[in-house]
Amino acid sequence: MEFIDLKTQYAQLKSKIDARMAAVLAHGQFIMGPEVAELEQKLAAYVGVKHCIGVADGTKALLIALMALGVKAGDEVITTPFTFIATGEMIALLGAKPVFVDIDPVTWNIDPALIEQAITPRTKAIMPVSLYGQCADMDRINEIAGRHGIPVIEDAAQSFGAGYRGRRSAGLSEIGCTSFFPSKPLGCYGDGGACFTNDDELAAKMRQIRVHGQDRRYHHPIIGVNGRLDTLQAAVLLGKFDTFPDEVAARERIGARYNELLKDVVRTPEIQPGNTSVYAQYTIEVDKRDAVQAHLKELGVPTAVHYPIPLHLQPAFADLGLPVEAFPHSVAAGRRVMSLPMHPFLDEATQDKIVAAVKSVVGK
């Protein structure tokens, strides 16, 4: 049983993906070739924003967004501790301080009610994460940020394709950032990512940053990074893009079926009114997680945990001096969350087997 079934996806899209990659091999423009610009146009239209900037990976997308907003040493950026390390890591890499705010235990996303009290004169940005495939409460976050004149970066690495009140994830704030890591809802065959914005000035700056800060060949007005999206990865994404809406619909259908089948067994994801989820992970909460995972493994059902250790408890952030109890909902979720197999090709028979296994194990 596959946790994420990329093999079936490739088998179905082989002719399109192979043709796209063959075109790159033929023209030889492996860096910033025409496929990158074509993909950027299609992704911007899909998200509903003016600009998409293809970048090397989702982590670089966050870094480039923070750099474009001028985040520097001594600044503060508000974010959640219940996320992958990249979110806090890029803040710290620039010498800024990640200021953590606990999650809403219902959605696992940052709790907007706690954000305002974390704002200080040094706050340069707010960076909510749209975890597991559902958008954070971006309207409330944007309203708070707007009153304080603070820009918002949506970390949409897990939510590309998700809906929020009629709009799409990555197009909900000043900058949206996503990842095209292979296991993401829209994934390439290596590393890839993108930044999205409606702001012409920010778009120009992010395009400049991703090519070492240059505005023309060998002329570098600002410090940048090597943050380009490879042409071959853009080609893979173009080969997948036409069927992506169908895959998003399949993810929603499969996630809703999981919810119905498991609602009386474990704590299932709660999708908020006006939201859709792409279920980058189908995540539940269970007691005695280690034992549950071990039993499911014996029954042939793979599982994963995203994320067992909140960022404030990571050794890399020990210098912040934050105690375990500082973010109780993040700590509690980290001890209980568990993800089940989830991909657009999960058939009902396999899903029924997974659900039956969970039912047989939970409570032991």
SSE layout and pairing:
Elements: H1 6-27, H2 34-47, E1 51-55, H3 58-68, E2 76-79, H4 85-93, E3 97-100, E4 123-127, H5 138-148, E5 153-155, E6 163-164, E7 167-168, E8 175-179, E9 193-197, H6 200-209, H7 231-241, H8 244-262, E10 282-285, H9 289-298, H10 328-336, E11 337-340, H11 348-361
Parallel strand pairs: 2-3, 2-4, 5-8
Antiparallel strand pairs: 1-9, 6-7, 8-9, 10-11
Sheet with most strands: strand arrangement: 1-9-8-5
Q: In CATH, what is the homologous superfamily of the largest domain?
A: Type I PLP-dependent aspartate aminotransferase-like (Major domain)
Largest sheet: 4 strands, mixed
Order of SSEs: HHEHEHEEHEEEEEHHHEHHEH
**In CATH terms, what is the architecture of the largest domain?**
3-Layer(aba) Sandwich
Describe this protein's structure:
With 364 residues, this protein is of the alpha/beta class. It has 2 domains: 6-101 and 109-241, Type I PLP-dependent aspartate aminotransferase-like (Major domain) (Aspartate Aminotransferase, domain 2), CATH 3.40.640; 244-361, Aspartate Aminotransferase, domain 1 (Alpha-Beta Complex). It has helices at 6-27, 34-47, 58-68, 85-93, 138-148, 200-209, 231-241, 244-262, 289-298, 328-336, 348-361; strands spanning 51-55, 76-79, 97-100, 123-127, 153-155, 163-164, 167-168, 175-179, 193-197, 282-285, 337-340. The strands form 4 sheets. It has a 4-stranded mixed sheet. Strands 3-2-4 form a 3-stranded parallel sheet, with helices on one face. Helix 4 (85-93) links the parallel strand 2 (76-79) and strand 3. The longest helix has 22 residues, at 6-27. It is globular, with a radius of gyration of 20 Å. The mean pLDDT is 98.
